[in-house]
Design a protein that fits this description.
By secondary structure, the chain is mainly beta. The strands form 16 sheets. The protein has a 4-stranded antiparallel β-sheet, with no helix packed on it. A 4-stranded mixed β-sheet has the order 7-13-12-9, with no helix packed on it. It has a 4-stranded antiparallel β-sheet with strand order 14-16-19-18, with no helix packed on it. A hairpin with a 5-residue loop joins strand 46 and strand 47.
Length: about 650
């Protein structure tokens, strides 16, 4: 006999919403997902001898509307030329957790985000340019696309569609204008040539200061006149791309635009899955026991499944089954006592003949059925976003269920009381994870395989420290290098590019040169250029996020020390310092004697450093404050004030 019993007010708070009728749990009040998603009930089972067992159950209310799409993709946003409108632009697809639902696309009226929607029409999931403006050089259209599923859930996303004139060879042209998709890095696209000029008298480059919303210069590189790829292009995500090359003879620059067409290639299937891998022992011969599915990047491709011969172990269960279309059909009776597991070897072929093989292990359930997962996890989470998966598992016999995990990521944790798997993935956790959730009733277990992707969120560069005042002498050839770690990027592998301007984004003085690849400043200031220059160093990451610092460049007349060659002066950086102080010892006259004292004048460290050496002095063990470094080399002496952060 089953009954709902009084608990502690928390584990029985949902009792009033339900009642027991024999072995059935009956609803007493309406359920509303928006008001309450979870209910705790406290159940008691009593046998014929009066022995009892109590258990708390967590019930979850399913939202009958499902979830809205989480992304919209447009296969192409660059249109080359307009002949006879309407002009096909690209295919729109909606990404949705509810994969079985169909989606409808439209262009809503929205003057802020979709002012150019009126120029376009949508037919099914295809976008057409219906009434284009006259094309001169290029046109840019801002549109807003809305995707809705069958339950009325909606998502909108803006896109920029660019129209350019039909490509016409100019003084310089590329030998090829087609690029097959999925080519490896450093693949040759074509060679720049000219029917008019001797190309060996020109230099070719890809400027990065162009509008990267239109030109894809950052995805290619030049080796002489040869255009190479430095990224992989996917036809399903890109249609046409445009590159702008700079051709220079040392005096005059010519800009040459090139439109490349990304050509579709057949992608083979990448995986085979079954709707279930646990088979009911009582399944009838000739019945469909599972549905076959495959992963294929080519949308709309058709597939054929077959059972193939293996090594005698991975295909041992093949005679028990047959395939009809995408159905796995039972050919012989299942017997748990004789064989609990069946290994089958499957092959899937696409319409172009590309194949993929995968072995699957099928389990036959005993009379005691294994627990069943009613919940499905999300397949992705954004970096720094909370991931929550509420496990909903039932056991038809009412046995208590225990959980175990295999290859669970360290940033995820499981709460048995609430049956919540949760955690937050940080920047170091970006990537793909495959782990297993095992639910066991003591006799049988069900395994849910989870493929979870932590999607990287680009983090902006961060200020590590601000370099101290840098020194130039007038009427001298000066050169200094800024420390690369003054601005750092928390994203592993993200490369920073640098720019230098005046504090208010003004141009640098004509005598000051900046080499961004080496963070070097050089120049010969004239005699009337003395004073402090506040300079702005900007670091930009590959996602175009920026950070900047202001530092001072002081230009002064040469002193007794400055009259020496600049390589005879003692330099330290960064200032302020955190962990290490970099010292440059001039060639000078023999070894240099160094002493470090605090603000009270107490010497706390001494050392001898070789002439012409570069050294790191550890500062991480010193307290924050002001310190003085006394440098002596022969007759030359210098004192520097250092701020320890």
């Amino acid at each position: 006999m089953f009954s709902l019993i009084v608990g502690n007010g928390i584990n029985d708070e949902g009792n009033t919403t339900f009642r027991i009728d024999g072995d059935k749990l009956v609803l007493s009040k309406p359920l509303d997902y928006e008001e309450k998603e979870f209910y705790n009930i406290l159940l008691q089972a009593t046998d014929s001898q009066g022995a009892t067992f109590e258990q708390v159950m967590l019930l979850q209310v399913a939202d009958d509307r499902g979830t809205p799409p989480f992304d919209i993709t447009l296969s192409n946003t660059l249109v080359v030329g307009i002949d006879n409108p309407p002009v096909f632009v690209g295919i729109m697809l909606a990404e949705d957790i509810d994969q079985q639902r169909a989606h409808k696309f439209l262009l809503p009226i929205n003057e802020e985000f979709g002012p150019d929607n009126g120029f376009f029409t949508v037919i099914n999931n295809s976008l057409f340019l219906e009434t284009p403006r006259p094309v001169t050089e290029k046109q840019r259209y801002n549109i807003l696309v809305e995707a809705s599923d069958s339950m009325g859930n909606r998502l909108t996303k803006p896109f920029l569609v660019t129209v350019v004139e039909e490509f016409v060879d100019g003084d310089f042209y590329l030998s090829n204008h087609e690029l097959p998709e999925n080519q490896p890095l450093n693949s040759i696209v074509g060679v720049f040539n000219s029917d008019t000029y001797d190309c060996d008298r020109f230099t070719f480059s890809l400027p990065l200061e162009v509008d990267l919303d239109i030109y894809c210069n950052d995805r290619f590189e030049l080796n002489g006149r040869t255009l190479l790829t430095n990224s992989v292009f996917d036809f399903e995500g890109v249609g046409n791309v445009m590159v702008r090359a700079r051709v220079s003879n040392g005096e005059t620059d010519i800009m040459q635009d090139v439109v490349l067409s990304i050509k579709d290639q057949n992608d083979p299937p990448t995986g085979i899955s079954l709707s279930t891998q646990v088979l009911d022992e009582s399944s009838a011969v000739s019945s469909v026991v599972a549905i076959l599915a495959t992963d294929d990047q080519d949308a709309g491709d058709t597939h054929e499944f077959s059972l193939i011969v293996g090594n005698g172990i991975n295909d041992g269960g093949n005679p028990v089954f047959s395939i009809n279309g995408d159905n796995l059909v039972l050919s012989k009776p299942l017997n748990y006592e004789e064989n609990e597991f069946h290994n089958i070897l499957l092959q899937v072929s696409d319409s172009q003949g590309a194949t993929f093989e995968q072995g699957l292990r099928l389990q036959v359930s005993n009379a005691n059925d294994a627990p069943e997962f009613l919940s499905s996890p999300l397949s992705y989470v954004l970096q720094d976003q909370v991931y929550i998966y509420a496990l909903d598992v039932i056991d038809t016999e009412g046995d208590p269920v225990t959980f175990d995990f295999e290859s669970l990521p360290s940033w995820l944790g499981f709460n048995l009381a609430s049956k919540l798997l949760s955690g937050v993935a940080g920047n170091d956790n970006v990537g793909m994870y495959n782990f297993s959730i095992k639910a066991s009733d003591g006799n049988k277990e069900s395994v849910q395989q989870v493929a979870l992707t932590v999607i990287d969120v680009n983090d902006a560069p961060e200020i590590n420290f601000v370099p101290g005042t840098q020194q130039f002498f007038s009427n001298r050839d000066n050169e200094i290098q800024l420390p690369f770690d003054c601005i750092i990027d928390p994203d592993v592998g993200d490369e920073l590019t640098y720019g230098l301007l005046g504090e208010n984004n003004t141009a640098l003085p004509g005598w000051l040169n900046f080499e961004p690849a080496e963070l070097k400043l050089s120049g010969i200031p004239p005699g009337n250029a003395t004073g402090d220059y506040r300079l702005k160093l900007t670091a930009t990451d590959q996602g175009n996020l920026k950070e900047w610092i202001i530092f001072i460049l002081n230009v002064s007349f040469p002193t007794a020390l400055g009259d020496l060659d600049k390589n005879q002066s003692f330099s330290v950086y960064p200032n302020p310092v955190k962990n290490y102080l970099q010292t440059n010892i001039p060639q000078g006259n023999g070894e240099a004697k160094i002493s470090i004292s605090n603000i009270a004048g107490q010497v706390i460290k001494t050392m001898v450093l070789g002439a012409g050496s570069q050294n790191k002095i550890p500062f991480d063990g010193l307290s924050p404050g002001v310190y003085f470094i006394n440098f002596r080399q022969g007759e030359q002496q210098q004192v520097e004030k250092i701020i320890k952060q």
